[in-house]
Specification:
48% of the residues are buried. Strands 5-6-16-7-17-21-19-20 form an 8-stranded mixed β-sheet, sandwiched between helices. A 5-stranded mixed β-sheet has the order 14-15-23-22-18. α6 crosses α8. It contains 11 helices and 23 strands. The chain is globular. The N terminus is likely disordered. The two termini are 30 Å apart. By secondary structure, the protein is α+β, with helices and mostly antiparallel strands. The longest helix is centred in the C-terminal third of the chain and has 21 residues.
Length: 553
């Protein structure tokens, strides 16, 4: 059974204008694509049931034409590229947060389903729903109006996390008159790219509330507050730069004051309340905590019980290149694919008729912790997706009748008929390092999403999957590319092989091409956002009709 718990309920507003202090991730989408809907935060350690509820949407797509029809000049970037910029700029950590919707939008919010744990009886054919776990993993799905138990599910899987620096549980450090914040590395980042950047912090804070309980608050300090300066070249003549991650990557946050974090004297006869851990202001600098308390909306630093904060680059994602053909941004891997997948799911049912003849389910799953192996309660190697699929497989059909005999094997039938696209960014050819790429497989930006293939199953792609995805792309008029690594080069992996083995579901790995993967500042193609959205829409809309025509036992 899938038991999802949350630390509090709060509204989430995704609307046509997003203020600078709204923070969203995969559980949301970009500001121009969606209107308001409700959300709740999931946290396995606390006792409040998670909400499972319908999606609400409005969206529009533009044709996928990279070049103008009248000349060879590149066409302006599509609207989806600008929407992606808004999305990624509002999404430093892999957690979900937003302000409550304005009064004018509340009337558009769908009804909430609050059963715990949710059961198949709470889901109806033709409905649209989503759930979160740990506020950092999301599963959203739309049920076809002609659904029957055991029918196929068209799935797109992505991940919400990126390599970053995370504030340590005891971060207070001082050295040579400087205040420093201790951090630990998360994932496999290009760590030298974090030097000399204007950094700040974002994440979630657990605070004590007046009612006596605890509440999660999501925060983002928007101004730069820390920096990791490089050592001057005069003091470091070596050609290589490989900093020690423990001693040489400690951010500077300020200058030491005359008195640091001095606690008030305890009055005579008064005893300090016992705390199992050191007080929060003994573990972190007081000025740092004051900033966090302000962003969390609490009056006293003592109300902060704990937090999970990451560092992020305050420089905004932008369009670049002489014709704005590029996106310069952090976290392209993998918010690019997360955004495109969620946008495509909503776009696939935007006209209100997309589910009328649908016999299957259209599903998007966005997981946390991919960059560190996915082995967590909310990673792709958890029970999250299998448990959801098991429940969905036995949903009552449109007539409400269920055969208990067929339900016994509905889960296995659904898995045998379903298909998963594992969407994770791919490598574009680098003009300065072209020798690092296989000579016949050198993807280029803005030339289409890349199908990733590996004979050693580091990617789960096979020929039947390529045929299926190629047909979806043909129907939508979007280009595709192919990629394999050189035989003398290591190959990364994705959630694709992991989920394919766990579920026995046919799977294909793909992603948009990019440069500088895992750098603090990455580079991708502005038109590839539109290409991926079109491809994913074609897959979600067309898989039900294609599934029966491509059987390989």
């Amino acid at each position: 059974m899938l038991c999802i718990k949350s630390c509090h309920h709060q509204r989430i507003a995704l609307r046509t204008t997003i203020t600078a202090k709204q923070h969203t991730t995969a559980a949301a989408a970009c500001k121009r694509a969606f209107t308001s809907f409700s959300s709740s935060i999931a946290c396995p350690s606390l006792k409040t049931p998670v909400r499972l509820r319908p999606l609400h949407y409005t969206t529009a797509r533009v044709p996928c034409h990279y070049f103008s029809s009248t000349s060879s000049k590149m066409a302006p970037p599509p609207a989806s590229a600008h929407e992606f910029l808004d999305f990624v700029n509002a999404s430093p950590p892999p957690t979900t947060q937003s302000k409550p919707p304005p009064p004018s939008s509340k009337s558009r919010l769908p009804p909430h389903l609050r059963t715990h744990p949710w059961t198949p009886s709470t889901i109806s054919p033709g409905g649209k729903y989503y759930l979160t776990r740990n506020a950092s993993s999301l599963i959203a799905f739309a049920v076809g109006s002609r659904w029957s138990p055991g029918n196929p599910i068209a799935m797109i899987g992505a991940h919400t996390d990126s390599p970053c620096l995370r504030v340590k549980p005891v971060s207070k450090r001082t050295a040579n008159g400087y205040l420093q914040v201790g951090v630990e590395t998360y994932g496999g980042g290009i760590w030298h790219s974090w030097f000399d950047r204007d950094l700040s912090v974002a994440g979630r804070v657990l605070v004590r509330v007046k009612e006596g309980g605890f509440e999660q608050r999501l925060v983002r300090v928007e101004k730069p507050i820390v920096r990791i300066p490089s050592l001057a070249i005069h003091l470091h003549r070596q050609s290589n730069f490989d900093p020690n991650k423990e001693e040489e990557m400690v951010p500077i946050a300020g200058l030491v004051e005359e008195v640091l974090n001095k606690k008030g004297d305890v009055e005579e006869g008064e005893e300090e309340e016992f705390e199992p851990l050191k007080a929060i202001d003994e573990r972190h600098h007081s000025e740092f905590l004051k900033l966090i308390a302000k962003e969390a909306g609490v009056d006293k630093v003592e109300d902060i019980q704990d937090f999970e904060l990451i560092l992020y680059d305050t420089q905004k994602a932008v369009l670049g290149g002489m014709n704005e053909e590029f996106i310069y941004s952090g976290r392209l891997d993998n918010l690019d694919m997360t955004f495109c997948a969620v946008k495509a799911l909503i776009g696939s049912v935007k006209d209100g008729k997309g589910l009328e003849e649908e016999t299957g389910i259209r599903l998007v799953a966005c997981f946390d912790h991919e960059e560190i192996g996915s082995l967590s309660a909310h990673g792709a190697d958890s029970n999250l997706l299998p448990a959801v699929l098991r429940r969905l497989s036995v949903l009552p059909g449109v007539d409400g009748n269920q055969q208990s005999e067929s339900n016994e094997t509905a889960f296995e039938q659904t898995l045998a008929k379903s298909f998963l696209i594992s969407a994770d960014m791919a490598h574009a050819v680098h003009p300065n390092y072209a020798g690092k790429y296989e000579r016949n497989h050198q993807p280029q930006m803005n030339k289409g999403t890349v199908i990733k293939i590996n004979a050693n199953q580091r990617y789960a792609t096979n020929s039947p999957g390529i045929v299926l995805v190629k047909e979806c792309a043909r129907r939508k008029g979007v280009p595709l590319q192919l990629f394999v690594v050189k035989n003398d080069s290591p190959c990364g992996s994705t959630i694709g092989p992991m989920l394919s083995a766990k579920l026995g579901v046919r799977t294909l790995d793909l992603g948009n091409p990019q440069l500088a993967m895992h750098s603090i500042r990455e580079m991708g193609g502005s038109w590839d956002v539109e290409h991926a959205i079109g491809l994913f829409e074609g897959f979600l809309e067309g898989y039900g009709g294609l599934e029966g025509g491509l059987v390989v036992d």
